[in-house]
Amino acid sequence: MSEILLDIAGVNKRFGGLQALTDVGIRIARGQIHGLIGPNGAGKTTFFNVITGLYQPDSGTFRLGGKPYSPSAPHEVAKAGIARTFQNIRLFGEMSALENVMVGRHVRTRQGVFGAIFRHKAARIEEAAIRARAQELLDFVGIGQYAQRTAKYLSYGDQRRLEIARALATEPQLLALDEPAAGMNATEKLALRELLVKIRNEGKTVLLIEHDVKLMMGLCDRITVLEYGKQIAEGLPSEIQKNEAVIKAYLGGAH
């Protein structure tokens, strides 16, 4: 069996009188694309936000790479090795594409504020390395030619690619993507699929929320399904498509 990278169990989350998550868990194997699906209101985004530190769980156990981690805040989760994107694009619009990725890369820098202020030799060397790595990542996601373009002037699909490059710049163990295909046309979705396969082939692990069921079934190695804040299925896409509870709750009989 593949090594489990992310192992979460027993997650409960309540908002006032609403029990949003009830004893939810997920196990993601290293080097796979793992999908998280469910109908509207299923608790996908809540669970995703708990995993990545935006919401604090009422209970649950969290292990990443075999070690416990605390989803107490987004920066702690990033330090543990989880990088995420958001459904609504969150770029520094006035910065260049290259600068956006460099910001992500600075999470892993050593020189800190002192080096940035005084620009000593070690800081300059590190800054050059950050710039070079940022360019490599832009090339990797397919927008290297737009390195100096202001982020807000990139096409929608290229902005999504830029977000992924910035997330990869943190050297994450797990890349968590929140509806990256939202708003994309068919051509952009195909390009996104190719990019995610490329990322997986580089040995990266991906957690993916997406409403496009056809895309998920053709892309993910395994899928977890939520309904009303509870897990109702987990397995291979072929198994999920035949699961009666999933068909009733989410797929509506459309395979």
From TrEMBL:
<keyword id="KW-0472">Membrane</keyword>
<dbReference type="InterPro" id="IPR051120">
    <property type="entry name" value="ABC_AA/LPS_Transport"/>
</dbReference>
<dbReference type="InterPro" id="IPR003439">
    <property type="entry name" value="ABC_transporter-like_ATP-bd"/>
</dbReference>
<keyword id="KW-0813">Transport</keyword>
<dbReference type="InterPro" id="IPR017871">
    <property type="entry name" value="ABC_transporter-like_CS"/>
</dbReference>
<dbReference type="Pfam" id="PF00005">
    <property type="entry name" value="ABC_tran"/>
</dbReference>
<dbReference type="Pfam" id="PF12399">
    <property type="entry name" value="BCA_ABC_TP_C"/>
</dbReference>
<protein>
    <submittedName>
        <fullName>ABC transporter ATP-binding protein</fullName>
    </submittedName>
</protein>
<feature type="domain" description="ABC transporter">
    <location>
        <begin position="6"/>
        <end position="253"/>
    </location>
</feature>
<dbReference type="InterPro" id="IPR032823">
    <property type="entry name" value="BCA_ABC_TP_C"/>
</dbReference>
<dbReference type="GO" id="GO:0005524">
    <property type="term" value="F:ATP binding"/>
</dbReference>
<dbReference type="InterPro" id="IPR003593">
    <property type="entry name" value="AAA+_ATPase"/>
</dbReference>
<keyword id="KW-1003">Cell membrane</keyword>
<keyword id="KW-0547">Nucleotide-binding</keyword>
<keyword id="KW-0067">ATP-binding</keyword>
<dbReference type="InterPro" id="IPR027417">
    <property type="entry name" value="P-loop_NTPase"/>
</dbReference>
